[in-house]
Amino acid sequence: MSAVEHGRRRAQRNVGVRPRLDPAGRTGNAVLVALSLAAFLLVWQLVVWVSGFKSFILPGPYTVAERFVRAWAEGMMWPHVQQTLVEVLLGFAIGALVAVAAGVLLARSRLAERLLSPYLVAAQATPVLALAPLIVLWFGNGLLSKLVITTLIVFFPVAIATMVGIRGVDRRLLEMARSFRATDWQVIRRVEVPAALPSILGGMRVGITLAVIGAIVGEWAGGEKGVGVLINLARGSLFDIPLMFAALVTLALLGVTLYLVMVLVERRLVGER
After folding, report:
1. What is the pLDDT of residues 112-155, one digit of tens each?
2. N or C: which terminus of the chain has fewer CB atoms within 10 Å of its end residue's CB?
3. For residue 63, what is the domain's CATH number?
4. What is the pTM of this model?
């Protein structure tokens, strides 16, 4: 085994270490989540009862659940969810890939950081909601504009997490790799990126939830299909507030599912001890 490979494995052992949860602990966490969900639904229903709002203003949990099931059974929900899911996954993949490359560049080049950081910060400080109409105007209201918006909103957290992770790599590992005449590409691929993987994946966990937001913002700015479009239709021309809440619940479930998938990917790549 080469010294570079030894350094990579040592870095993976030293970073991202988390205690293994026993089955009793997992069961306890599941019970807590179920209790918190039940408490939320109870408070929601109490607010509906106390306020006396009609379902077209604030529907109760049962009304929303019934509309949720009916929308899926009628086939209304899936085409919109499918469109949003495509936008989220493609936009996240493009944004994360570009962000990791940019993060490595920013971490390894002080000149690149000084030149690019002001523009990155300025782009992040500008609300994507304000940029969305312009992006739709420039790229049309099809898939491309949604991918641009999603890529932009995913890019910053993943790039910063990558830069911080690369700069936090143990200097001794880098010195050992260079002492064996490893090229820059070998150092990046075999030492820096594996050692920074927990930080990079942490940024991606944030990025996948932001990708959902980016897709919805793009659909609000202009689109023919998607969960964001369905929310606008339910609130506007259909005036079906229970359907709007059902779409919001679907969106929340989509975000939670994608986040959990990223957690599983992180545990698979980094390892759990």
Report:
1. 888 888 888 888 888 888 889 899 999 988 899 999 999 999 99
2. N
3. 1.10.3720.10
4. 0.82
